[in-house]
UniProtKB/TrEMBL annotation:
It comes from Rhodopseudomonas palustris. The chain crosses the membrane at residues 21-39, 131-150, 162-182. The keyword Transmembrane applies. It holds the Pfam family DUF308. The lineage of its organism: Bacteria, Pseudomonadati, Pseudomonadota, Alphaproteobacteria, Hyphomicrobiales. Keywords: Membrane, Transmembrane, Transmembrane helix. The keyword Membrane applies. This is DUF308 domain-containing protein.
Length: 194
């Protein structure tokens, strides 16, 4: 009786991270699908989506930190929460100046959020499945630098220019979720065999 309790308590963080990563991947995939279809022809929907995306990131960081000891115990996520809230507000203001301004805001967010996600992945390394989060954080920072550079160009960007960034995020969250699922399946197989 005591052995199953120990197993379930050690599996809880992994189970939470799996669900969290699957939900984050699903949200991003839906956002990307809308960006490439309906939102590209509907500027008002695109504007709402450009505010919702960082707001969702803030909410997700809060939920994950709350589940894992709170914001004080997770400083990189607490900072990411603040950066994402400020980004949602800045995107709302930048929409009045045009998509170049929005792309610059997203660029700054991608750099900061990427570095903070990388830090969270390093801190959680022992939880397993963190290498996709570390890669995602590094790629986010690089994408942010590209966005900032592109924002000063002559080309008028749109939500379609931001969608690949969200798609890569979805990919990395999905890889992390699948990695943890396979790891848990192997652990259960070993436990049953023992």
């Amino acid at each position: 009786m005591s052995r199953p309790q120990a197993t379930s308590s050690t599996a809880t963080p992994s189970a939470w991270l799996k669900r969290y990563y699957y939900v984050r991947a699903a949200f991003s995939l839906i956002w990307v699908a809308l960006a490439f279809t309906i939102a590209r022809q509907a500027p008002h929907l695109a504007a709402v989506m450009l505010i919702v995306y960082p707001a969702w990131d803030a909410a997700a960081n809060y939920a994950d930190a709350a589940r894992n000891g709170g914001l004080l115990a997770n400083p990189s996520q607490a900072l990411n929460l603040g950066v994402s809230v400020l980004t949602a507000l800045a995107a709302a203001v930048a929409l009045n100046s045009g998509m170049n301004a929005v792309l610059a805001v997203y660029g700054g967010w991608a750099v900061l959020a990427g570095v903070l996600q990388l830090a969270t992945g390093v801190r959680r390394w022992t939880s397993g499945g963190q290498w996709p989060m570390i890669l995602s954080g590094a790629q986010s920072a690089l994408a942010g630098a590209f966005f900032i550079h592109a924002a000063s160009g002559d080309k008028l960007p749109s939500i379609v220019d931001i969608a690949p960034y969200a798609a890569f995020g979805a990919f990395y969250f999905l890889v992390a979720a699948v990695w943890l699922s396979v790891k848990d399946l192997r652990r259960r197989t070993i436990d049953v065999g023992a």
